[in-house]
């Protein structure tokens, strides 16, 4: 039994699992479906692909060591696609987690190949991006779609006027059927250009407008 080979495999797999756990913990702490175990499996699986490719080349004399590993880069996209969801009319979620899984796979490949410096640097880069850049991102403004239900269709124009006063950057206002189905109710759909950090306060401000029954961010 090749003790050196066993030690190499165990060390590289352990490193890939730790990296996957760190990234997965960050995703899981934000309530994402792909969390700790998923990222650990992706990282360890990618590391195994590197190890198998190296073993087949060095020990069995077969093929290119990067051939199996290269399939991981494209293959992980199938898993990532399953995480991306379309919610409401224009909200796409899961892109960051899908990207994190793809990055985790490349980190696993690095550890599997014994490229520890790249693996550690890649893990830190992913974690820094997910944690510190999120704080920056929530201050950036972008459009958020809201559905507002009004208790009386004849109050729609007044409510729209008050919304425009509160949110001068609101646009794409449309009058729609109510979601509740209550007689006389009407819906208003609009985009508000806002920072993520004030979304909750936006909802509260809209609810203060007389005649507004409920607000849903879509």
Low-confidence parts: none
Strand content: 15-25%
* Elements, N to C (H/E): HHHEEHHEHEEHE
Report Rg: 25 Å
Total helical segments: 7
The percentage helix is 55-70%
If you average the pLDDT, what whole number results? 82
Secondary-structure class: alpha+beta
The largest beta-sheet arranges its strands as 4-5-3-6
Number of strands: 6
Task: Give an overview in words.
The structure is a single chain. A hairpin with an 8-residue loop joins strand 4 and strand 5 (186-195). The protein is elongated. The mean pLDDT is 82. The relative contact order is 0.12. The chain has helices at 3-28, 36-58, 65-83, 95-112, 116-137, 156-166, 199-207, and strands spanning 85-87, 91-93, 141-150, 171-177, 186-195, 212-217. The longest helix has 26 residues, at 3-28. With 218 residues, the chain is an alpha+beta fold. The strands form two sheets. A four-stranded antiparallel beta sheet has the order 4-5-3-6, with helices on one face. Strands 1-2 form a two-stranded antiparallel ribbon. Helix 1 (3-28) runs antiparallel to helix 2 (36-58).
């Amino acid at each position: 039994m090749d003790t050196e080979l066993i030690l190499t495999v165990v060390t590289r797999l352990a490193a890939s699992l730790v990296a996957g756990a760190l990234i997965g913990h960050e995703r899981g702490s934000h309530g994402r479906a792909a969390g700790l175990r998923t990222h650990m499996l992706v990282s360890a699986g990618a590391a195994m692909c590197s190890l198998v490719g190296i073993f087949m080349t060095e020990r069995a004399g077969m093929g290119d060591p990067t051939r199996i590993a290269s399939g991981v880069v494209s293959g992980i996209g199938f898993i990532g696609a399953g995480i991306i969801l379309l919610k409401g009319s224009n909200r796409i979620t899961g892109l960051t987690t899908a990207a994190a899984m793809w990055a985790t796979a490349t980190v696993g490949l690095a550890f599997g190949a014994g490229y520890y410096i790249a693996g550690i640097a890649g893990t830190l880069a992913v974690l820094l991006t997910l944690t510190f850049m999120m704080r920056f991102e929530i201050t950036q403004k972008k459009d958020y779609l809201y559905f507002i239900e009004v208790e009386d269709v004849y109050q729609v124009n007044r409510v729209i006027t008050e919304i425009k006063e509160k949110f001068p950057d609101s646009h794409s206002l449309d009058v729609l059927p109510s979601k509740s189905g209550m007689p006389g109710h009407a819906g208003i759909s609009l985009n508000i250009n806002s920072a993520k950090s004030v979304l909750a306060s936006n909802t509260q401000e809209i609810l203060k407008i007389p005649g507004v029954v409920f607000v849903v961010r879509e």
